[in-house]
Design goal:
The complex is a heterodimer.
Chain A (H helix, E strand, L loop, with lengths): L19 E5 L4 E6 L2 E5 L1 H8 L7 H11 L4 H17 L6
Antiparallel strand pairs in A: 1-2, 2-3
Helix pairs in contact in A: 2-3
Chain B lengths: L16 E5 L26 H14 L3 E5 L9 H10 L3 E6 L6 H9 L4 E5 L5 H8 L4 H14 L4 E7 L7 H10 L4 E6 L5 H4 L1 H4 L3 H17 L5 E5 L19 E4 L5 E2 L20 H7 L1 H5 L16 H4 L4 H8 L16 H7 L25
Parallel strand pairs in B: 1-2, 1-8, 2-3, 3-4, 4-5, 5-6, 6-7
Antiparallel strand pairs in B: 8-9
Helix pairs in contact in B: 1-2, 3-5
The chains are: A alpha+beta, B alpha/beta.
The structure holds iron/sulfur cluster (2 copies).
The site of one iron/sulfur cluster (SF4) has 9 residues of chain B, from helix 13.
Chain lengths: 95, 377
């Protein structure tokens, strides 16, 4: 668990207890809530985070997103990795 | 930028956080406590029903984070009920605790009730010194047990450490201790000198060299522990050229409720004379947020004078800390004197001259006590 974050194809990302996605009805936005942090979450990020259930692997999540949104898998792969690496570094996602 | 167009006043944005000081009672006596010198007595505390209403109103008003603080929140017998209620109304619930008064059973019950996060204060990385700072023998050992209970229940743990003369040489060690305790986040905050911290300044202020070494040490650990622990580092103001935005802007993001129910835009705002604060006993939270004179006094930028009024940073730092402006200039509408543009900036230099300059023994603390006959300086 120490050192920089290592995101592998087989990683099973998930939100740890104390981090949750919430539809904020006052502001009409999805928010990722974490200890002392509130992160406004756009529609794409929400789609990614909803799939981080600790069961699906990173490559399965990317396959699913590419199929659902009929998008270039390589681009999705790059975006998902960038986002999850950043969140894992901030301890908002566990791998 | 300088077109003389006056935009319509925007509606007040909803609050994001609510800090509930459930009680001022606390078994510890930290000499830098951020509670006021005059604390609320138990008999004056809000009852359970009123707190539950406040949290319901907070959730409806758009608050996302509820911070349950004190004093020691576990001193309230209804803590579990309050946490369960916050969960029910959808608030993200953060317990800010000394750990004293919590047992592994109580931590489990709180976790089961839906608590989201625990912030545990630790006074030093060395037991004897930690207990002395807290004014409570055995506090350090009790906290280790609570930390374990928190992580055993899979709750995220933050360790809070306040840095001052007695522990300044162990700032980096505090980060390591937090990692060892399984914390996901650590807050290293240099002591601030108002309230009890001001009373104890001679005992708390490190030498400038000590402070600088500690700051560098903690900054260096950020890279080392990336992905293991989030380090939030609150360094003293005088290091900066510009002030920090107080509370993210006055009455812009958060509000505090005192044990007896006063709603404050900042925890020290009652030190500003002639500011009219409202109580949750008489007003709804939303009413207070949008209409209380204290919240509107320094909201936005209309209250500013020069140099803030025409400054391009005014929407970044909102002129800094109002309480510090008042304390150092006598006028709460001045720019925070931390700012290099402030005509009173020399007063900050005067403060840093009060640094301890040798290794003389640390004077005795005036411990924070509820019944303290407010210490006369
Ligand atoms: S002049 Fe005022 S607004 Fe500008 S940087 Fe200084 S404190 Fe901030
Ligand atoms: S005004 Fe100053 S004392 Fe008050 S909360 Fe802000 S920074 Fe703190």
């Amino acid at each position: 668990m120490s050192g920089p974050v290592q995101l592998e194809d087989q990683s099973k990302p998930h939100l740890p207890r104390g981090v949750r996605l919430k539809l904020d009805e006052t502001r009409n936005e999805w928010m990722l809530l974490a200890p002392e942090r509130v992160v406004k979450t756009d529609a794409i990020a929400v789609e990614i985070l909803k799939r981080c259930d600790g069961v699906a692997t990173l490559s399965e999540i990317v396959d699913d997103l590419a199929a659902t949104f009929k998008a270039d898998r390589a681009i999705i792969d790059r975006d998902v990795r960038a986002m999850l690496t950043e969140l894992a570094t901030k301890r908002m996602v566990d791998l | 930028m300088n077109a003389p167009v006056v935009p319509p006043k925007p509606a007040v944005a909803a609050p994001v956080g609510l800090l509930a000081e459930l009680t001022h009672r606390c078994p510890l006596g930290c000499p830098y406590c951020s509670n006021p010198l005059e604390m609320d007595a138990r008999a004056d505390e809000l009852d359970t029903e009123t707190w539950l209403r406040v949290f319901s109103e907070a959730a409806a008003a758009g608050v996302l984070h509820a911070h349950l603080s004190g004093g020691e929140p576990a001193a309230r017998h209804d803590l579990l009920e309050i946490v369960a209620h916050c969960y029910k109304v959808g608030l993200y619930t953060n317990l800010i605790t000394s750990g004293i008064g919590l047992t592994p059973e109580k931590v489990k019950a709180l976790a089961d009730a839906g608590l989201d996060h625990v912030q545990l204060s630790i006074q030093d990385a060395e037991a004897k010194s930690a207990d002395k700072i807290a004014g409570y023998e055995g506090a350090y050992a009790k906290k280790q047990i609570v930390a374990k209970a928190v992580t055993d229940n899979n709750l995220p743990l933050t360790v809070n450490a306040v840095i001052h003369r007695a522990n300044v040489t162990r700032a980096g060690r505090m980060v390591e201790l937090a990692v060892e305790l399984g914390a996901r986040r650590v807050e290293i905050a240099h002591a601030q000198y108002y309230g009890w911290g001001l009373v104890n300044r001679a005992a708390l202020m490190p030498t400038r060299a000590q402070a600088e070494i500690a700051i560098a040490e903690v900054e260096a650990l950020k890279g080392k522990y990336a992905g293991t622990i989030v380090i939030d580092h609150v360094i003293p103001d005088y290091h900066a050229k510009h002030p920090k935005a107080c509370m993210g802007g006055w009455a812009k993001r958060t509000m505090n409720i005192t044990p007896k129910g006063m709603a404050l835009p900042c925890h020290a705002s009652e030190t500003i004379p002639n500011l009219e604060h409202w109580s949750v006993r008489d007003h709804s939270l939303m009413d207070i947020w949008s209409a209380s004179p204290a919240f509107n006094a320094f909201r936005g930028t209309d209250w500013m004078k020069e140099p803030c009024r025409s400054c391009e940073r005014k929407l970044i730092d909102y002129g800094g800390c109002r309480c510090q402006a008042l304390a150092l200039t006598g006028d709460a509408t001045e720019a925070d004197p931390v700012c290099h543009l402030s005509p009173h900036h020399d007063k900050i230099a005067a403060v840093t001259e009060m640094f301890a300059d040798d290794n003389a023994p640390i004077p005795d603390y005036v411990y924070r006590r509820l019944k303290a006959t407010a210490p006369v300086e």
